[in-house]
Design a protein that fits this description.
By secondary structure, this protein is of the alpha+beta class. It is built from ten helices and twelve strands. It has a five-stranded antiparallel beta sheet with strand order 2-1-5-4-3. The protein is elongated, with a radius of gyration of 27 Å.
Length: 343
């Protein structure tokens, strides 16, 4: 029999009568049913899938394949849309139909993550170019202020040039941080809830808005190896945005979960920690949701750099930040794999 247990794709093997002869664990998870319960039963009757049986016979007889895209499939949990590859196979002189099934949402999820990763690369490039453009005239402004300061007759007038020099130095320091890679921070094993609680403490002390924080934590989460300062900064940027989005006495929920066999970009991980930041604010305008992680794209009157920086910090951990939004329910989700090569 074909060895299919090692595959992450749902695989079902049928005989010429469309009876289930074998299915792997991925198929059990997708269909929500144990293999032993449906062995020898007609697969297409079980899932109520409309299939052209003349085409089926042709696939089996001629060892051909066909691809069926975004079609509805009945599972134990309801109707799900899938992509299916059906291929005729001959094993030990017996004819079989091999079905390889993947959720359509799986493919759209991969495309979405690839777009977000590309956005982050473009954002980093744009930020560095912008920093270079700022740095050049900034040196001229500071130099001119220093020359002017020498010629001013009184201390009162020099106070204004000192402000220009000080603000030029401050802006220059910020530009240097944008141009230079972040100082390496050694990763360490840490409970992710330590980071979320530190962020809540910081926001509570800094914010004038009296928002309500709701914790919805999974206490069974294992420790994760990350650079705590970077993940804290990324989460802090998301929570700050949530606080600014909600009105006075708004509600912000921090939720943590463990995901099994989750895909980030093109890579599937056995375990991924998900951190959700939910708020009950007005939501993000649909026209900017897709590009929200680009610098200068923001739902408020700010530079929009915070989300771009947060995305970059999370991606250094092989993770991703995703967003969904509707009025009264905006959710930014951080996905962090438990195992990855930390840079």
């Amino acid at each position: 029999m074909i060895s299919i247990e090692v595959l992450s794709t749902a695989v079902v093997l049928l005989n010429e009568q469309c009876q289930v002869k074998q299915m792997n664990q991925s198929a059990e998870r997708l269909l929500g049913v144990s293999a032993r319960h449906i062995l020898e039963q007609n697969f297409f009757e079980l899932i109520r899938f409309e299939f052209d049986y003349s085409s089926l016979s042709q696939l089996v007889d001629q060892n051909q394949s066909c691809f069926i895209e975004d079609t509805p499939l009945r599972t134990a949990t309801g109707i799900t849309r899938v992509n299916m590859m059906a291929s005729g196979r001959e094993v030990d002189r017996e004819s079989f139909l091999l079905l390889e099934i993947q959720s359509s949402e799986h493919h759209s999820h991969i495309r979405k993550d690839m777009e977000l990763q590309h956005q982050s690369e473009v954002s980093n490039h744009l930020i560095r170019n912008l920093a270079h453009e700022i740095k050049n005239p900034l040196g001229g402004i500071k130099g001119a202020a220093q020359l002017l300061e020498r010629k001013l007759p009184d201390e009162v007038s020099r106070r204004y040039t000192q402000i220009i020099i000080q603000e030029s130095d401050r802006l220059g320091s910020l530009v240097d941080k944008l141009l230079l890679p972040a100082a390496p921070e050694p990763p360490q094993l840490i409970n992710i809830h330590r980071i979320t609680e530190q962020v809540v403490d910081i926001i509570t002390l800094q914010s004038e808005e009296q928002s309500t924080f709701v914790r919805d934590y999974d206490p069974s989460l294992p420790e994760i190896r990350v650079s705590p300062g970077q993940i804290q900064q990324a989460l802090l940027n998301l929570v700050k945005n949530a606080v600014e989005a909600v009105s006075h006495n708004g509600k912000i929920t921090l939720r943590t979960r463990i995901l099994m066999q989750h895909t980030i970009g093109k890579t599937q991980y056995k375990q991924v920690i998900r951190i959700d930041v939910l708020d009950n604010g007005p939501g993000i305008a649909p026209e900017i949701t897709r590009d929200i992680f680009f610098p200068t794209i923001s739902g408020k009157n700010s530079s929009g750099l915070g989300l771009s920086i947060a995305q970059s910090l999370v991606q250094r951990h092989a993770g991703i930040i995703e967003v969904t939004s509707e009025p009264g329910n905006t959710c930014f989700s951080i996905f962090l794999p438990l195992e990855h090569n930390h840079e």
